[in-house]
Amino acid sequence: MYVTMMMTDHMLEPLLQLNVEVPMMHHAPMMNGDATQQVILVQVNPGETFTIRREDGTLQCIQGPAEVPMMSPNGSIPPIHVPPGYISQVLEDNTGVWRVVVTPHSECYPPSYSPALSPTHHLPPPYMTHPHFIPTSPAAYYPPASHGDVGPHQYYQHRLAPIYPEEILYNMTFLGREEHCKPPPKKLKERIGERQGLSRVTTPPSSTYKSGPQCSATPNGYGKGHASAVATSPGGGASGGSPGTKRAERKARGSPKHTDGEQQESDLDSRREQDVLSGIDKPQVSKIQARSALVSWARAPRAGASGRGQADGAPPTCSYELLLADKGSDGKYRVVYSGEELQYTLTDLRPATDYHVRVSAACNSVKGPDSEARTFTTHSAPPDIPLPPRLSHRTKSSLTLQWKPPVDNGSKITSYILEWDEGKKNGVFRECYFGHQRHFKVMRLCPAVGYTFRVAALNDIGPSRFSTEMVFHTTGSLPQMSVAPRLLRAGPSWLVLEWTRPSSCSPEEEPVYMLEMQDESKGAEFHTVYSGTELSSKVEDLSRSTQYKFRLSACSAGWRSAPSSVLVCRTGADRPGPPTAPAISDVTPHSFRVTWDPPQDDGGCGDSTYLLEKSEGTSEAIGQWEVAYRGPLREHVCDGLRAATLYSVRVSAIGTGGHSQSTESVLACTLSLPPGPCHPPTIQVPAKHREVNLQWEACDGENESLLYSVEMRGPEQEEDDVTQVYHGTQTECTVASLLPGATYRFRVCAANDAGNGPYSDFLEVTTAAGPPGQCAAPVVSLTSHTCAVVSWEADRSSGADISGYRLSWGQDQDSLELVYSGTDTSYEVSDLEAAVSFCCRLQAVNQVGASPYSEPVWCRTPAAPPDAVAGLRVREAAPSPDRSEPFSPSTCLALAWDEPRCNGQEISHYTIAVGDDHVASSTTCHVIRELQPDTDVQVRAENAAGAGPFGPCLRVRTRPLPPPAPRLECAAVGPQSLRLRWGESGKGPLTNQVTYILQMEDRNQRFVPIYRGPSRTYRVQRLSESSRYTFRIQAVSEAGEGLFSETCSFSTTKSVPPTLKAPRVAQLEGNTCEVTWENVPPMRGDRISYVLQVLGGRESEYRQVYKGEDTTFQLSGLQWNSDYRIRVLACRRCLDTSQELCGSFSPSTYFSPRRSPSASAGGAAVAGAASTRGLTDEQFASLIVLGVASFSIFIAYLLQLLI
């Protein structure tokens, strides 16, 4: 880079002529008071970067070639900040122009040489760009300037940067001493060009020298690291002077040189920082969707002893750049993120697209290399929104539509959905086509009518959104509007409409009329209610008293008219329904109140008038009805009626639609007046010992509505204490349940709806003597569980002496038997059963007869010990198997017995006597373990009353011991199978009748049997690779089922890649051949690589020529007319164990390179050679075997002939 300084004596006037309207900077200083100013031209060579700091602190990067005019406020050369290893020199040419040349400290670069690795420089804030220099050339290349060969007039046409009033920074890529004299390598030039292409994507870094959003590490050309050194110059100087004075000033303005120790230390720090940043891992991709993915990366490592922290001692922060490419891992990358975060969400991705991402870190102004690329593929998505359909052909009755397929987003489009609004313009679409075609013809349309269409695409992921709606019209002219229909007649549920024939129709045409109706209760749409050729129509099934709108349209074979104007009409009201049945209340001897509810169906007429009618008599003998009330009220009081008279009433409703039916007649009877006094009752039949028959005369004649009440006063009751014994309409009654030989008094009165009449005088009656009355309940006393004493008291209320008592005894009332008859008042019942309920009753007898039985008395004998246990037997297996204590018929005995009678107390437990030992059990079955031979077993039951007797003895024989579980081993392991084997256990011999049960644990941690049989080996198939399975085994024989063995776990191995087919060879230009082979997809996330081996010429062994993930490889340097054999195998790299599993080699392929005049002929020659000599090892072995067999058959035939 060169900084050219020109005095304003030479430059100021031309500058002012460029743009006289732009004022000079107001803070530019004056030199020596003569208004002289000094302008500095900064020439930025190609490949260099010029960095300027603005007033707001941001950085602006200017790529070369360009020239930036700077204004010196005091006429002095600005201090130049250069990185370690570089120096600045001030030179003056013959024209008086000063040039500041920045060169490496070594002498490899002359002053006129511009390095290929773009150095960048730094200038302090006082030196600002001149406001009159406007950019004029977008891209112009100028060679590096040397003193004396570039005039001042050549600087006006370069591309100039905008004006920046603040500090200007220059940065230079640092190179080691040993690299200064070397030409730039080719790869580095390509990387610099790539980074310059990405200079448009910048973000604000965290470093002090990269704080602006428009300047980052990549566009500034930072490589491995950079540093800065500051050189100062004198502050003033005159604009003129002798050459000797200028040379003295140039010497004073030179930058001081750095010592070799400082440069070496800076070089070591930069290299150490770059080596640390080069260890960043490739990023990880997760949460992959169709259009987004989350990329994360690990924090960059930092040098522990570099000492390149910030000024305040805080650790330096690192920034990261994330680069994305979609044209392959070696394609062009673009920066999508730059910052200090460790993750970033990529958006706006394309579905089903392969992307490659890599990350780089920059720390302490040192940028590390890019990491390895990570490849990922976005998911498939529904298709994009298709373009709207377009019209390809139309007629009066059809429209032919076409559409183009949208982007399928990774899944093939299977069908299209075409919808239309049927020309109704109501926004409701219906499907008219569904299929894989991209065109459709809509038929049976009306002429001159517009139809709206939209289309959507469908794939295996789902449907796309519908396209933009398009309106297409059929051809033809729209006829005149139809005449609106007219209303002829209207009913409650129907309307009759008529219309006239359109005047535009010819006599030969027979138009079809479509009558449409709008029901506001169902929506604002018109629905067709009639379609035909008639000129009238009756619309039925309508609602009464409802407004409807109608319109008419006509259509023929070639036209369809527009809808007519709307006709608004209303249905009529219907006659109301009958009101509810009237209710009668507030009945008096001369009036009653009638109320009713309105009808449920008012006929649509609103308020109704009610008509109340009444008639004297019942419904069978109704006379003439007369109107009692007419009006809107729903109640009425009927007065002026006769007492004790029956009336019938009914109600009907009257509305605008007519007169409703009358309700059913309701009977109402007025109340009667209270009756007069009655005559005393009389006795027509002599009184009995328990009942009396009374009769009396009717009051007020034969009035059946009168009720009579008979009251009785007993022999021991007071005068005011009476008992009602009868209430009814009869004039006689029988009073029962009286005491024999007692005196009773009776009286009677009549009553009606009006009230009760006065009572008659009393009648005294004495009953006759009778049998004894009901005895009191006897008392039962239990002396033991087999004996009870029954006692009772004598009854003397019958009026005669009792001659004896009868006692009945039994377990219930239906089984009572006479157990005692005599004059005693107690009796002892014996031989009873324990804990059984018994019932008894008592009856007294005298000379008149027997008394009723007393109330039954219940008692229950006390409980006793249980009876002896019976039915002791042995069961084949345990009734409820206990997993903690398995049942073995060899050492265990399962006993069961019948439950004995408990004798009133629940059996608490059973005692099992096994020899001298006793075992308790709470159920009727028990398992005895650790049996001894020749042992007697007895069982008895016990309850709260005591222990019952032992049952009979039982002698049984146990079974032999079941076989033990064998030891389970894994004989062979495969990726999808395990071969298990087991042998005999050392505890005892096994017979041939042993059956083995092999069980495997499933996903629910339950063991399920997978094999049952006598074999000692079994192969478990259909397993998953690299998975762990748990097994156990059990031996079963005639003695029973043995215990399960301990669980054993075995794991399957990982599958090796399959054997590939023989590779294919195609000869390219020269002695180069291209080898291709089939692709193997990743196996459970593990990547697949391939190994290619070649055997050629006189070589005895194959040699490896390629190993990688590609499925093609080019062999070069082959010998003409030499035989080669190639083969390939696939290798699987396990991510979890870092193990590489290789499959078998593919069949080998023969080929021989041939000289040919063209590449196509060469490919054919190789293909021909491969086809003629491409025998695999297996095919060659088969040919040998076939030849030997044919020769053997021939020799055998000859021997047969000789014999």
UniProtKB/TrEMBL annotation:
<feature type="domain" description="Fibronectin type-III">
    <location>
        <begin position="385"/>
        <end position="477"/>
    </location>
</feature>
<feature type="compositionally biased region" description="Gly residues">
    <location>
        <begin position="234"/>
        <end position="243"/>
    </location>
</feature>
<feature type="region of interest" description="Disordered">
    <location>
        <begin position="180"/>
        <end position="285"/>
    </location>
</feature>
<keyword id="KW-0472">Membrane</keyword>
<feature type="domain" description="Fibronectin type-III">
    <location>
        <begin position="279"/>
        <end position="381"/>
    </location>
</feature>
<feature type="domain" description="Fibronectin type-III">
    <location>
        <begin position="578"/>
        <end position="676"/>
    </location>
</feature>
<feature type="domain" description="Fibronectin type-III">
    <location>
        <begin position="481"/>
        <end position="574"/>
    </location>
</feature>
<feature type="domain" description="Fibronectin type-III">
    <location>
        <begin position="771"/>
        <end position="864"/>
    </location>
</feature>
<feature type="region of interest" description="Disordered">
    <location>
        <begin position="370"/>
        <end position="390"/>
    </location>
</feature>
<dbReference type="Pfam" id="PF00041">
    <property type="entry name" value="fn3"/>
</dbReference>
<keyword id="KW-0677">Repeat</keyword>
<dbReference type="InterPro" id="IPR036116">
    <property type="entry name" value="FN3_sf"/>
</dbReference>
<dbReference type="InterPro" id="IPR050964">
    <property type="entry name" value="Striated_Muscle_Regulatory"/>
</dbReference>
<dbReference type="InterPro" id="IPR013783">
    <property type="entry name" value="Ig-like_fold"/>
</dbReference>
<feature type="compositionally biased region" description="Polar residues">
    <location>
        <begin position="199"/>
        <end position="219"/>
    </location>
</feature>
<keyword id="KW-1133">Transmembrane helix</keyword>
<feature type="transmembrane region" description="Helical">
    <location>
        <begin position="1180"/>
        <end position="1199"/>
    </location>
</feature>
<feature type="domain" description="Fibronectin type-III">
    <location>
        <begin position="1059"/>
        <end position="1156"/>
    </location>
</feature>
<keyword id="KW-0812">Transmembrane</keyword>
<dbReference type="InterPro" id="IPR003961">
    <property type="entry name" value="FN3_dom"/>
</dbReference>
<protein>
    <recommendedName>
        <fullName>Fibronectin type-III domain-containing protein</fullName>
    </recommendedName>
</protein>
<feature type="domain" description="Fibronectin type-III">
    <location>
        <begin position="677"/>
        <end position="770"/>
    </location>
</feature>
<feature type="domain" description="Fibronectin type-III">
    <location>
        <begin position="962"/>
        <end position="1055"/>
    </location>
</feature>
